[in-house]
Design brief:
6-stranded mixed sheet, 4 domains, Rossmann fold, alpha/beta, globular
Amino acid sequence: MPKKQTVSKQTPSITNEQLTELRALLPHVFSEGKIDFEKLHAALGDFGDERPERYSFTWAGKREAIRILQTASRATLVPARKESVDFDKTQNIFIEGDNLEALKLLYKAYFGQVKMIYIDPPYNTGNDFVYPDNFADPLDTYLKLTKQKDGEGNLLTSNAETGGRYHSAWLSMMYPRLFLARQLLRDDGVIFISIDDNEVHNLRIVMNEIFGEENFVAVFPWRKRTAKSDVPFGLSQDYEWILCFARSELFNASIEGNRRKYYESPDLPNRLWRIHEMTTHRTASERPNSNFTIVNPKTGKKYPVNPNAVWRVSRDTFDEFYKNNRIVFPGDYDFLNISKPVLRYFKDEDEDKAGEQFGFVSASTNLPKEVGMTQDGTKDIGDLFEDKVFGFPKPVNLIKHFIKITASLDKSAVILDFFAGSATTGQAVLELNREDGGNRKFILVQLPEPTGNKEFPTIAEIGKERIRRVIKKMKKEREGQLPLDKSEDLGFKVFKLRESNYKQWDVGASHDSPEKYAKQMELLADPLVKGWKEEDVIYEVALKEGYGLNVNVEDAESKGVQKVSDPDKEQSFYICLAEKIKLKDVKALNLKKDDLFICRDIALDDEAAANLSLQCRLKTI
């Protein structure tokens, strides 16, 4: 007989999910539910490394960082409608809170959904905002530091220059966040990370460990300023670095270039084609099979090879290329002015390759001048605010450039920035969508770091206000114009990190005495906290069950029941938070075996629970 289940009250265990994947791949290395490392080593064969000395990367606190990563989050994200713009229609998201907790909460719903991540984390210069992640209770630490909870001595502080640059503390802060970020990326996804000289070397190594050295893509040098005169050693450091790593080999960067020129000819009716250089930059010693003289079969004319730039084809494949109309010689067509053989490619084949029909070419690490410098980022935000409310923001065009080389073709891509700062990434997404008709969505996460500014007391407030002003400006630009064929998403939902709506079991109190244990049991008879709000509970249930933050919530056919739908996942569930539910109350729903119905455990008597378990998938709170 089917049984009722309970809803997830915390985020999934990363370790358990990885073990599940390993069990599916190598079931024979498990014994009595645990990994048998001798069997694992045997299964790995030559890939196992038992050398007493081997290359590795570690730091003081790495184990703690891994334990923090493995600690499930019991927090939740609470909607803040008054701070949002067009909450019920928009798909853009702004999360105010600790990004580690936020990433854990996003993990189940957004696993493998993000196309691009851009982050501009603290550079560990000695004046960065820091707060200690706490393995025992990371949420409690966050709540105290952001003054949402009382706590003596827990102050928002900076990493004082006199204390040196704590590489270990910085790495411990970055490691779990980057690990979770990788899980959110699609297989063809990519991450860009801005950094300066202080930690670029450590960041590269820790990224190699998390993403794999084979998925390193490039380092982009970004010129942040013009040369300064009063600098240490008399040398002005004018560049920062943007590291790029891919989720897998499926990522392919490209940017719009000159459109390819196609030809038509009578010998190939109804089939357009283009030409491509047939030499390569390889030498004769590097590619000896391509070191030969080409002879035109029709004319007998010879075309000697350049030993410093041999042919792209080998001697063995030349005949096959020629038979398939892949080789064009000088004189074959009057309209072509060529002096040596070239390759021929057909347009219909190009159109089978992503991007090529649009005239996209490979991107370069040489960033164009249009991306701007810090002064341009300052101007971007200065055009929206009268005062200088945020220091050293990245230029909007810089973020646009990275979106273009990764998500120009996928105009519905999800873009994530979990060190959002003043929300430059949000502005970049909104503006680029208008420029090319895209419907990309952003997810921004920003800690409410104090600013000392009375009007905008935290950086999160600056970010939210910036997006509001960008939206207002963009709407004004459209005034008096004809409506667009496709409506723009000029809005964003605000969510705030808060303690769970579920009561938490106090392990210490339950062991003190039978009386306290009984009190705990009494408190958990209804696991919802005092003063809970229906919408907050619905979003927490949805998120921890793996539904995204863009769910649609609507009244169902039965009174007191709501239907929660995730359009991206094409999934839905019914939820009722009433204190009492009778079978007749939900009869109109006509529940089927595959339908998920969620309600409070105290709302069902034994008969209702048994019948609902037979009708549908029943979960209780």
